[in-house]
Specification:
Blueprint (H helix, E strand, L loop, with lengths): L1 E4 L11 E3 L4 E4 L2 H14 L4 E5 H5 L6 H5 L5 E6 L2 E7 L8 E4 L2 E2 L20 E7 L14 E6 L9 E11 L5 E13 L4 E13 L2 E5 L4 E2 L2 E2 L2 E24 L2 E24 L12 E29 L3 E27 L3 E7 L5 E3 L10 E30 L2 E25 L21 E5 L9 E3 L1 H8 L10 H6 L2 E18 L2 E22 L7 E23 L4 E12 L3 H4 L3 E3 L4 E4 L7 E14 L3 E13 L2 E5 L11 E7 L2 E14 L10 E20 L4 E7 L7 E11 L2 E10 L2 E4 L11 E3 L2 E12 L3 E8 L5 E6 L5 E6 L3 E9 L2
Parallel strand pairs: 1-3, 7-10, 28-31, 32-36
Antiparallel strand pairs: 2-3, 4-9, 5-6, 7-8, 9-10, 11-12, 11-48, 12-13, 13-17, 14-17, 14-47, 15-16, 17-18, 18-19, 19-20, 19-21, 20-23, 21-22, 23-24, 24-27, 25-26, 27-28, 28-29, 29-30, 30-33, 31-32, 33-34, 34-37, 35-36, 37-38, 38-39, 38-40, 40-41, 41-44, 42-43, 43-46, 44-45, 45-48, 46-47
């Protein structure tokens, strides 16, 4: 029996095996996946980083975001310990684009362009590619990078495949267990001309996190309020992919790519809130009188992404190659009626309230603060939200290869039409104790918090909160009450909007290859037509808020030239250089035309007139192949950015001249990002046995940025400028991987590191001491796989072995904004390759 190394395939994790025939067993492993990734990077005309599916399966990465975090220049933003958004070269996730099999993925979140990649389970992905420089035939809507998700095709395989996997996870923070299952099938029919590949994946993850946050309520070293939060989420992922390929001859192919992902997050958030401190604020270790409230939030939202892509490639006359594609994608976020806030206020203010430890404030309070009998119902607020983002695209590309003696080259041109629609609808209702207005009266019955608890005590590791509030008992109180009279008209209207964004693009590009040189140059033109409808809410009207419609529209054209060069010094070493341009539109929440006139001197204003962010990008690098499966590289990059968007205060200018606060968004003048990426990965086959099974991977990114902003300064009654670093950018990011493969064993230990980064500006954007900064993050993960015969594989995974925390501070360390801990998670799985 012979063994052949193959590239990574579908759901098969590092070291997995499947049978192609009775005589051959095909083995995939970490070394094979490294080889596949290097080959893809070397073949590309532009600068890309690649993760193959073995890399994804070989680490405890629950989703696509966490798998991408292993690449140089890429970091992940986490939500409750789980990776969600990808940051490329230190630039915010909203500056990235995501495609699935070529189709643009819209964002299910109402106000964002960023796609939360935790909706994409790692098990269904064949490869992930991040384009860090763009060619003219690619959409120009990414400044950090374009993430291309590719699912399996039957033509990726030498034969048929059926792989089944089951796993069970354990959350060390709560002790809860989580099931997971996957299925992948692929086969060719019609004498190998028709390929069918299908995959299913499902997971129900039960976990918890402990949180304490102030939101930045600091005045020097004194604190005016904080919250203790206990989270108990249940997250479910269900995804499926069906891919059809028909290749009747060597010159013709047809492909249908479909993908469906459904992600739900059912969360219970129990809180104890400290506010209204006597004297305004507290010094650490000093107690005073304050208001305490017990609050509950319970909601379940479901995000769904659907993607369908139909394409064909035809060779015409033996020289020209035609590509036609039609894509349709839709994402939505549905939150049915949720308990937005069930508030139980202390029947009297509590004495002896204080805190210790500014990093993770620990509550000092008397025993009565944790007794449900000390609290009474104050208000119940409900919320319902639905947002949808749909994209339709038509694309045509025509190109041909050229040759003139020793010169080789190609020419390519094409056009693309994109139609995008973004809608959001929100409704809120509030019930209180006012019998005078029965429309929003919460009805007769007990109001003491004891009537809304089931007797369970919250398992909260950062102190004590008390008894858990039962969401079912809160819902029962308002279930039969009418909604019409309790509707909060202003809050329900303000965030409602409808937007459309139509982009028509055309490009021309050509390439030349000779004597080790490859030169690609071209230009892309994109015309954008944008329209938006929203609401203006005037809260100064007698008898209630006045609501009126607002409409805005604009169009613009961007010309985006690109030049990319590569020189092969020898068969193993290449130099790369690229000059490219990008255009990224502002977030939908920033473009929404809603206006809230809270008072005669305070307003919140959307800005549909925001200009798109434009960037000139320069990349230089050298890459060298090291033996079989190794590579080392150095890349320098610089991005000159105009029109980046930031929150500001428009008070004192224009129509807001008489206002003291007019919160809105503005375009910054200039920003600059520069950095260096270093990477090395190699199987250490040159070492004596058994050390020749070692694999090492190291990468690091060092970046620097600055951006100019301005805002109205009340003290000087003028606009004042300030320089900041780009939000979301860590100056230092690094990954370290140590793996080992020998016989049936495959194992890896990985470290992911990010230095502090600016999360967001504070209420006064001119004051650096109000900046919210995420502290250094280091996470250690481990995976092990053992091959049991030729068809079975046993795996074990452990994530966050060092129990890393999420720590956000205001201005200086020790001034808490948010502190959260998640604990360790473990998973054991079994996979079977049936054929």
């Amino acid at each position: 029996m012979r063994y052949l190394a193959l590239p990574a395939l579908g759901l098969l994790a590092a070291g997995s095996v499947h049978a192609a025939d009775d005589a051959t067993v095909l083995v995939t492993g970490q070394r094979a996946s490294l080889t596949r990734a290097i080959a893809a990077q070397e073949k590309a005309d532009n600068i890309v980083s690649v993760v193959s599916s073995d890399d994804i399966g070989g680490l405890p990465d629950k989703n696509a975001a966490e798998a991408l975090a292993r690449l140089p220049g890429i970091a992940v933003q986490r939500d409750q310990g789980e990776g969600r958004y990808v940051v490329v070269r230190g630039l915010d996730a909203d500056y990235n684009a995501v495609t699935i099999n070529g189709a643009l993925v819209p964002s299910p979140e109402a106000g964002r362009r960023a796609v939360a990649l935790d909706v994409l389970p790692a098990g269904l992905i064949r490869s992930l590619e991040v384009s860090k420089t763009l060619t003219p035939d690619q959409d120009a809507n990414s400044l950090g990078g374009t993430v291309e998700v590719k699912t399996l095709s039957a033509f990726d395989l030498p034969g048929s495949l059926l792989s089944v996997g089951v796993a069970a996870g354990h959350d060390g923070n709560t002790g809860r267990n989580s099931p997971q299952a996957s299925l992948l099938w692929a086969r060719r029919f019609m004498d190998g001309k028709l390929g069918v590949a299908a995959g299913l994946s499902g997971e129900k993850r039960k976990f918890g996190s402990d949180n304490v946050e102030t939101g930045g309520a600091w005045k020097g070293n004194r604190l005016s309020g904080f919250e203790l939060r206990d989270y108990l989420p249940v997250r479910e992922r269900r995804a499926g992919a069906l891919n059809l390929d028909y290749r009747p001859d060597a010159d013709t192919s047809y492909a249908l790519r479909s993908f469906l992902s459904r992600f739900s997050d059912d969360e219970v958030r129990d809180r104890l809130t400290v506010s209204n401190v006597k004297g305004g604020d507290l010094a650490e270790g000093v107690t005073d009188t304050a208001r305490l409230e017990r609050r509950l939030r319970q909601r379940k939202y479901t995000q769904e992404i659907r993607s369908l892509a139909l394409s064909t490639e035809q060779r015409i006359g033996g020289q020209w190659k035609l590509h036609l594609e039609a894509d349709a994608s839709r994402a939505n976020d549905d939150t049915p009626e949720a308990i937005n806030d069930a508030r139980f206020r202390g029947t009297a203010n509590f004495g002896g309230i204080g805190f210790t430890d500014g990093v993770a404030p620990h509550l000092i309070a008397p025993a009565t603060a944790f007794d449900p009998a000390s609290y009474a119902l104050n208000a119940i607020t409900l919320q319902q939200r639905y947002s949808e983002d749909s994209v339709k695209q038509l694309r045509a590309d025509l190109g041909r290869e050229l040759a003139w003696g020793d010169w080789q080259g190609s020419v390519k041109f094409g056009a693309k039409a994109t139609r995008r629609d973004k809608d959001n609808d929100t409704n809120q209702w509030s019930y209180n104790s006012s019998k005078a207005s029965s429309a929003n009266y919460w009805g007769a019955g007990a109001t003491g918090m004891s009537a809304f608890t089931s007797g369970a005590t919250l398992d909260y590791a950062l102190g004590t909160i008390g008894s858990a509030i039962d969401p079912a008992l809160v819902r029962a109180r308002v279930a039969a009450l009418p909604r019409a009279g309790a509707l909060l008209a202003a809050e329900s209207a303000l965030d409602d909007f409808r937007m459309h964004e139509d982009i028509d693009a055309a490009y021309l590009q050509g390439s030349v290859v000779r004597d080790g040189w490859t030169l690609l140059a071209g230009v892309r033109a994109e015309r954008t037509r944008f329209g938006a409808d929203g609401k203006q809410v005037d809260g100064q009207q007698v008898g209630g808020s006045a609501i009126s419609a607002r409409h805005a529209e604009r169009d613009y054209t961007n010309w985006l030239p690109t030049v990319q060069a590569r020189y092969d010094i020898d068969r193993a070493t290449s130099l790369r250089a690229a000059w490219s341009n990008a255009v990224v539109r502002a977030n939908f929440s920033q473009l929404a035309p809603g206006i809230s006139l809270d008072s005669a001197t305070e307003a919140t204003i959307g800005n549909p007139d925001l200009a798109p962010l434009r960037a000139h990008n320069l990349d230089l690098g050298i890459e060298r192949l090291l033996g079989n499966g190794g590579v080392a590289s150095i890349y320098l990059f610089q991005k000159d950015i105009r029109n980046f968007t930031y929150a500001t205060n428009l008070a004192g200018s224009g129509q807001w001249r008489d206002y003291t606060t007019a919160t809105s968004y503005a375009n910054g003048d200039k920003a600059k990002v520069r950095g260096i990426e270093l990477a090395w990965q190699q199987p250490l086959r040159m070492l004596p046995a058994p050390l020749d099974g070692l694999l090492v991977g190291v990468n690091a990114t060092i970046t620097q940025s600055h951006a100019g902003i301005d805002s109205f300064d009340e003290a000087s009654a003028s606009r004042v400028a300030r320089t900041i670093r780009m939000p979301g950018q860590s100056r230092r990011m690094a990954n370290l991987m140590l793996g080992y493969e020998a016989g049936p064993l495959s194992t890896r230990l990985a470290l992911n590191y990010k230095s502090p980064y600016l999360l967001e500006l504070g209420a006064d954007v001119l004051d650096p001491m109000q900046d919210h900064v995420v502290d250094t993050q280091k996470q250690v993960d481990f995976s092990l796989a053992w091959q049991l015969g030729k068809r079975w594989q046993l795996s074990f995974e452990a994530a966050n072995l060092n129990n890393e925390k999420y720590d956000v501070y205001q201005g200086v360390k020790g001034h808490n904004v948010q502190y959260e801990q998640y604990g360790r998670t473990y998973k054991i799985g079994l996979k079977a390759s049936l054929f």
